[in-house]
Amino acid sequence: MSEAAIGVVGGGAWGTALAQAIASGGRAVRLWAREPEVIEGINAQHENALFLPGRPLSEAIVATGDIADLAEAEVVLVVTPAQHMRAVLGQLPARGRPLILCSKGIEAGTHKLLHEVAREVHADSPIAVLSGPTFAHEVAAGLPTAVTLAADDLETAHALAALIGQPTFRPYVSNDTVGAEIGGAVKNVLAIACGVVEGAGLGLNARAAVIARGFAEMTRFGVARGAQAETLGGLSGLGDLVLTCTSTNSRNFSLGVGLGQGKSADELLCDRRTVAEGASTAPVLREAAAAAGVEMPMCNAVNALLEGAALGEVVEGMLSRPIREEHQ
Fold first, then answer.
1. 196-226 pLDDT per residue, tens
2. In the 8-state DSSP scheme, what is residue 274?
3. Tell me: the pLDDT tens digits for 296-328?
4. Of 105, 305, 69, nearest in space to 186 by CA
5. At what angle do helices 277-292 and 177-199 cross, to 10 degrees?
6. CA pseudo-torsion sign 47, 52, 53, 57
7. What percent of the chain has pLDDT over 90?
8. Are the beta carbons of 141 and 185 closer than 8 angstroms?
9. Which of 91, 254, 256, 310 is deepest in the core (most CB within 10 A)?
10. Nearest-angstrom CA–CA distance, 247 and 191
11. Closest CA to 119 of 140, 149, 104, 98
């Protein structure tokens, strides 16, 4: 494999879409996937029929089931569920090459953000975070998309943005990795809340209130963890929040719709091939917020619903909270 190739870890819809966006600019991409049918489909039919059906893929994308094939990649985009990030990174032969983390979540148990996990596993590799309002099928189709690409130093962020950016896939750089990650993690939980509003028929006024008050929770938690408030008001925070809180294309929003219709979390999650990260993030976020002394009632309400609390009781509890000043 050429030194110029770019590696992608994860053959789901998002990993495949990123591979397609990069390959559309003429770069060779080596994509690692677990599923044999995904590997065969990409290499033989140039399609990921399992996770991104109907979208032709560039012949510059070569799929593999051996993660060692990514050893010589110029940079590796890691697109694996948050709770599996540490284990997958442990298998990845990074050898000091840059890693761009493209997943959204907080590690259970440690409450670490994913870039913190990556630094522990690959201390010699420059670590960056890619986040923002992105539906995989639109990115794969080449529709205009803007994202945040954050690294600790702007020079690294600019270099990586130049490497993976395309005219229709536009990275905006930042040195706030904490803010870029927290926006992506918290918005997944809030998207479930907005889905609940939709499923329960609570109205558009309520959805707007959830977005606004949820954004306040995101900002409080982010600043407490060291994020810049401006980052949370950008693509990886407010931008991603608006996208996933207003469309059934969001897995987290769709999960919330089911909860709002009275279905159980177990019922909704048992047959899902794709991951609704908010369901895994909600209990971790509750613990991390409590540890940081941050009040997040909206996110706590989502967690209660996922654990089986009655919808009516949760809604009543939210509406009966004491009146307070808005910007506290």
1. 999 999 999 999 999 999 999 999 999 999 9
2. S
3. 999 999 999 999 999 999 999 999 999 988 886
4. 105
5. 120
6. negative
7. 95
8. no
9. 256
10. 9
11. 98
Distance CA 191, CA 248 (A): 10
In sign, the C-alpha dihedral spanning 30, 188, 208, 228 is negative
pTM here is 0.96
Q: Per-residue pLDDT for 49 more than 70? A: yes
Task: Report the C-alpha gap between 199 and 193 in whole angstroms.
Answer: 10
Distance from first CA to last CA of the chain, Å, rounded?
Answer: 54
Q: How confident is the model at residue 107 (pLDDT cuts 50, 70, 90)?
A: very high
pLDDT at position 275: 75
Q: Where are the alpha helices (DSSP H) in the chain?
A: 13-23, 36-40, 85-91, 114-121, 136-140, 154-164, 177-199, 204-224, 229-232, 240-244, 251-260, 265-269, 277-292, 297-306, 311-319
Instruction: Check residues 55 and 328 and name the one with the higher pLDDT.
Output: 55
Please pick, among 104, 112, 187, 263, the residue that the annotation labels catalytic.
187
Count the alpha carbons within 13 Å of 59 in the hemisphere toward its beta carbon: 1
Check if 187 is active-site: yes
Strands, sheet with 145-151, edge to edge from the N-terminal-most edge strand = 61-64, 29-32, 6-9, 76-78, 99-101, 127-131, 145-151, 169-174
Q: Are 253 and 244 in contact (CB under 8 A)?
A: yes
Whose CA is closest to 132, among 48, 18, 54?
18
pLDDT of 94: 82
Residue type at 254 in one-letter notation = S
